[in-house]
Amino acid sequence: MTKIVERPGSLLTRRQALACGAGAALLPMMAAAQPAQPSPDPVITRPIPSSGERLPIVGLGTDEYFGGGIAQQQVLDGVVKALIGGGGNVIDTSSDYGASETLIAAALAEGGLRQKVFLATKLERDALDQAGIDGSLRTLGVSKIDLMQIHNVSSRQQSLAPLREWKAQGLVRYIGITTSVTRAFDALEAVMRREKPDFVELNYSLGDREAETRLLPAAAELGIATLIDIPFGGPGGSILGKVHGKPLPNWAQDFDAASWGQFFLKYVIANPAVTCVIPGTRNPEHMADNLAAARGRLPDAAQRQRMVQFFEEL
Question: Structural domains in the chain?
């Protein structure tokens, strides 16, 4: 499950901009006098090992927080546009996430956005039948799903046979398995080694590093792409709460982190076994800020160790 954890805004708000008062009137003249700014660094991409297809390393996760209705549709529309406009394309959802699939379908119908995204969804273990795949295809309004995953795998004996059949039929492009809890890692690793799916989705963050010692090395060894859920989580809840109101350390600029969200995301995506991290948000500005973590420098091994020590001393 992809948990949505909102964080204090790191960008200038509309109210703050207006508060600049009369100085704002000078902005057009200042802009005219300033040289054109260079384009931002491109979004970093990583390959899917089974095919070589490359994905931006930051995407979007959704959950039952998108409960349906006009207001939620407008929220998701804005977040999806921020994702695609900022150079991302991965959207992860599930048939079990309330109205998420329906809202995503509507958001992607605007301006032909479907062709610009890599769409991942999930089915529960008791829905791995034709009705299950037909339901997701129909709800998402597509004839083929980029990635179909089995949600919350907890059995070492889990079979991927139905997903392989759908892949052979051309209904899905890739297949995978997921978890959002560390206690399922034994089962997940057993299925990874026996079934060798294209993808595995798992929980990993600076505050929850168990995947570094087990599943991420296994994924690298087996050539399995990884989606990272709950990148702002930990055993005690959101790790963003630990830094609320605290200044970002000056040395974060050494790897181009300009906000706490980027700080935590860059820790995750600096691990070479991570293909894409999928933080959830209901705020287009936070989506843009998340994508900024996919640009510029990433922390090296020594910097990542410093990040761990810093976090543990908070």
Answer: 53-312 (3.20.20.100)
